[in-house]
Amino acid sequence: MNDVLLERIAQALERMSPAPVAVADFAAKTAFVWHPDPDRLEPVEKVSRLDVSLLVGIDRARDTLLANTQRFAAGMPANNALLWGSRGMGKSSLVKAIHGAVQAEHGALTLVEVHREDLPTIGRCLAMLRAQDRRFILFCDDLSFTQDDAHYKSLKAVLDGGIEGRPENVILYATSNRRHLMPRDMIENERSSAISPSEAVEEKVSLSDRFGLWLGFHPCDQDQYLEMIRGYCTAYGVAISDADMRAEAIEWQATRGSRSGRVAWQYFTDLAGRRGVAL
Fold first, then answer.
1. Which three-class secondary structure string do you get for 199-255?
2. At 72, is the secondary structure helix, strand, or coil?
3. Which of 163, 172, 165 is nearest to 139 (CA)?
């Protein structure tokens, strides 16, 4: 009777215990998204990316990040990178495009996207990646922090690595519209209200200092904007004269009130749809 009772208790405890963490099939997919509770790496069937050659007007950032990623993929030392600046100028597109280019060249390079709200669980993700015999780009897109947001402390752990150090097979690429990842008024509030203003500000501003590479993205001029659209037309086989494209594209940007790589792609998407060309 005691044996039966013990067996029932053991079965009940087994049902209550969390399911074992599923091991991702890194050989099958090249990109994953981190999801906690339960911890898992969800495979991405197809990464939404452009060819790196179609990214115009960001040559310096492209060449610098490409060289850094190639060194990392080859097992050489490389820096974490913060891509900051104007919205719609290709920060996220560049990370995905360079991952695709370097992965095709070297293999065994996996992109793992981590959402900002999941940063407190990033230690568990790193523990999972540390054990793998391949290299990972940890990608945090559109990263920023607000007042009373303590998630930035979790990011510091990723960048510094704590007592164990950051896994040598993991590198972090983050994009943000802000150079210091926090709004200026938040930093100024800290300076004016803290008991030790310089220390309070230093703690938050120093976060971006932990990235070895700072790559700035700035608004494009009209020639670069038109060059982006012409490159898309050539790559996807959309026929349009330079005069017509110029007139339409300038009108499109005027109605949007802005000019960027994102606006160029949105105009091209409209053009391709009107010309019956599938993207």
1. HHHHHHHHHHHCCCEEEEECCCCHHHHHHHHHHHHHHHCCCCCHHHHHHHHHHHHHH
2. helix
3. 172
What is residue 184's three-state secondary structure? helix
| Residues 35 and 95 both lie in one domain | yes
Q: What is the pTM of this model?
A: 0.81
Tell me: the pLDDT tens digits for 166-197? 789 999 999 988 776 665 555 445 555 555 45
Total domains, the chain: 2
What's the CA gap between 72 and 167, in Å, rounded? Answer: 12
Query: In the chain, what is the straight-line distance between the N-terminal and C-terminal CA atoms, in Å?
Result: 68
Closest to 267 in 3D by CA, of 256, 57, 89, 87: 256
Q: Does residue 55 lie in a domain region? A: yes
| Burial class of residue 250, CB neighbours in 10 A (0-12, 13-18, 19+) | middle
CB 122 within 8 A of CB 151: no
Q: Residue 213: which of 58, 57, 64, 52 has the closest Cα?
A: 64
CB 172 within 8 A of CB 80: yes
User: How many residues in the chain?
Assistant: 279
Q: How does pLDDT run across 76-121, given as a tens digit for each residue?
A: 999 999 999 888 899 999 999 999 999 998 888 999 999 988 888 8
Taking all residues of the chain, what is their mean pLDDT, rounded to a whole number?
Answer: 84
> Do 98 and 192 have their domain in common?
yes
Among candidates 113, 111, 82, 117, which has minimal Cα distance to 98? 111
Place of tokens 């990263």: 143
